[in-house]
From TrEMBL:
It comes from the Bacteria. One of its GO terms (molecular function) is branched-chain amino acid transmembrane transporter activity. It is found in: Cell membrane. CDD domains: TM_PBP1_LivM_like. It is a multi-pass membrane protein. This is Inner-membrane translocator. The keyword Cell membrane applies.
Length: 365
């Protein structure tokens, strides 16, 4: 009987067992983290993991380094907040509306910007994000520089703040926010896995490695770049709506500043761009370090996080351009036999480890 029960267990891949244990640990985390500040850090980790995963679709798979994704995040936050405060539209519908607005905006700006290549594209995304930030700072209808407050959901009888799934507000505890943020991370990650294993993923990687060669093979480069930026913008906007309901306050500096765009990109770069697990690992490492540093140093350490981000970018660029996932792969293969795969598979592995900017051909040079 023991042998009969052991065989099915052995048939289950270890990766599935590890994934199941990780899921159970995450579901139990709010019960372990009784402190609100620790639970807040856990929620922020999930928020940045979802944002970095969304950025990864454009920056990691397609190789288009965007430093303006905070604009999409802010558009999502503002769309749902305006719909809620002006017309009492539930944030769940506002979330979908924000995703649609951000995706349309991304396609409109992507059409001309994608004609730029390499570093010029990154610079253009910074400029566009700053323009959006300036517009919202001067737009009084959406609160201008002072921002917008989201009213509390209140109990009808007592008038006190309460939980409301309809208004996506949980004023009696942070645990529901944690589970919703976790669901968003799972959703973005599942979509990323589907993209990774679909023709779209292969096309995006081909564009990243050599878009001229991809175009020569019949890949419509501009179309697939636009698809990538639309998906990335839509998921960034969805997270923006969640973040607005979590803080119950938004302003342009909170949702659209350049530092936010840099941090989103840095989380994915630290973990490993172009990989599914990279943004998740990067968020789990970087965000707690940044939050704990900020809490320890308080107001006197406002610039410490920026110094840390800059130092990380330099260190990653010099020593580990493939991020932490590249380091994990290197440690896994250390001491083992050299791969005996046929040349085409070896080249595919090399492409997966291509650095952030440039592809396999550039890496060889």
């Amino acid at each position: 009987m023991t042998t009969a029960t052991a065989r099915p267990l052995r048939a289950i891949p270890r990766s599935w067992i590890a994934l199941g244990l990780l899921a159970l640990a995450l579901l139990a985390l709010p019960l372990v983290l009784r402190s609100d500040s620790r639970l807040n850090i856990a929620i922020l980790v999930l928020v940045y993991a979802a944002l970095a995963q969304a950025w990864n679709i454009l920056g990691g798979f397609a190789g288009q380094i965007s430093l303006g994704n905070a604009a999409f995040f802010g558009i999502g936050a503002y769309t749902s907040t305006v719909l809620l405060s002006r017309w009492e539209v539930t944030p769940w519908l506002g979330m979908l509306a924000g995703a649609l607005v951000a995706a349309i905006f991304a396609v409109i700006i992507g059409y001309p910007v994608f004609r730029l290549g390499g570093h010029y594209f990154a610079i253009a995304t910074i400029a566009l994000a700053e323009i959006v930030l300036t517009v919202f700072n001067d737009w009084e209808w959406v609160g201008g520089a002072t921002g917008m407050l989201i009213p509390f959901a209140r109990d009808i009888e007592t008038g006190r703040p309460t939980n409301s799934l309809y208004y996506l507000q949980f004023n009696l505890g942070k645990a529901p926010y944690f589970y919703i943020a976790l669901a968003l991370v799972v959703l973005v990650t599942v979509v990323t896995v589907i993209i990774d294993r679909s023709k779209l993923g292969y096309y995006l990687r081909a564009i990243k490695n050599d878009q001229d060669a991809a175009r020569a093979l019949g890949v419509h480069v501009l179309r697939y770049k636009l698809i990538a930026i639309a998906i990335s913008a839509a998921f960034s906007a969805v997270v923006g709506t969640f973040y607005a309901q979590y803080l119950l306050y938004i302003d342009p500096e909170t949702t659209m500043r350049l530092e936010l765009s840099v941090l989103i990109a840095l989380v994915a770069i630290l973990g490993g761009v172009g990989t599914v697990a990279g943004p998740l690992v990067g968020a789990a490492v970087l965000i707690p370090a940044a939050e704990l540093t900020r809490q320890q140093l308080g107001g006197s350490g406002n610039a410490i996080d920026l110094i840390m981000y800059g130092a990380l970018i330099v260190l990653i660029s010099i020593f580990q351009p493939n991020g932490l996932m590249g380091l994990v792969r290197r440690l896994r293969h250390r001491g083992g036999p050299r791969p005996t795969a046929p040349p085409s598979e070896v080249q595919a592995l090399a492409r997966e480890e291509a650095p952030l900017l440039g592809g396999y051909e550039e890496e060889r040079g």
